[in-house]
Write a structure and sequence with these properties.
globular, single chain, 8-stranded mixed sheet, alpha+beta, Aminopeptidase
Length: about 190
Amino acid sequence: MNEEQLPNGYPHHLVMSFESQQGEEILIRPILPADAARLQELHSRLSPESIYRRFFAHRPILSDNEARKLATLDYRLSLALVAARQVEPDQLVGVARFAPSPERSQSVEMAIVVNDAYQGHGIGRRLFQELARAASELGQHWMLVETQSDNKPMIDLAERAGYTTNTVYQTTMYQIWLDLTSPRPVSL
């Protein structure tokens, strides 16, 4: 990407790549405003269950306005990381984001979704780890994962992320607070 196309404050240090569990090279980078259409395309490839797990509602279409809002961030208070295959960098396979949480000071709420065809490849786990690291670097002390009580993959991901957790069960939802100030050994 050309330097003059990048927004002010773009966190270059968060650009990285890794090898998925299937041996494929995956690029992770902060989202760009130009990714709005790519977010819509990713959304169109998600199963109804993945959409529901991410948005807590059935949302068959991601509107132009929603996609623009999700792709345009300040990189300080709100951040999103996108994942793409190195061989197809314009086709997103996942996105993880955080925004300020009104529930606690120095805390953020996070959300993540990975294309169904790439779930179980380690992409969600890596996005989660990099997002938590970025939040910690920005001075956040807590990261909230709010998920449905039957979303075992997300619950396991949060509980195995390498941070002390405090879990609150509310009816059909879990609130899992990760203490970003207390990393612990990761048990994968």
